[in-house]
Predict the structure of Ferritin.
Amino acid sequence: MAWCFRNIRRHMCMLMRQNFAKSCESKLNDQINMELKACHQYLAMAYHFDRSDISSPGLHRFFLQSSAEEREHAEKIMKYMNKRGGLIVLSSVPEPLPCFASSLDALKHALKMELEVNQHLLDLHALAGEESDPNLCDFIEANFLQEQVDGQKILADYVCQLEKAHSDVGDYLFDKYMGAGMHTGK
Ligand SMILES: [Fe+2]
Ligand SMILES: [Fe+2]
């Protein structure tokens, strides 16, 4: 019965599907799952820095906001997938790294993760070009590429500033700078 409903649903999707290659559909699904993995990792980071023995409210807030943005990205692609007549396939989300030795370690990990996400977006854009899918190229360009580069610059700046500070006092001042007056204690 479930198989039957799946096939009917698939057929309904196909009715409005046009110039949308299976390879693009599959890579878009990978992108959705990458965004959700990043969402999960940022959430873990946010609550690591909220611990009472860490207490970095600025980083807590920053990573919480980052997590929400990644979920938004995943949902934006899911909405797009439905517009193109594709089928969304969510995979299980890998367990995130639970804790970090320092703010610098966490920010370096975030930058590495964003560079991987960006590479996947660039590969997706290249694939859309190969498959002559201008709509998908436009979707990626308009919604992701610039925002991705802007975000990476912010993370790289933070890494650089923390490397210069290079001490517990530096970490403390950096967190104050990030969260200046914004921590509500919630
Ligand atoms: Fe993202
Ligand atoms: Fe991101």
User: Anything to note?
Assistant: Residues 182-186 have pLDDT under 50 and may be disordered. The pocket of fe (ii) ion (ligand 1) is lined by residues 35, 38, 70, 73, 117 (CB under 6 Å). The radius of gyration is 19 Å. Residues 64 and 121 are 23 Å apart (CA to CA).
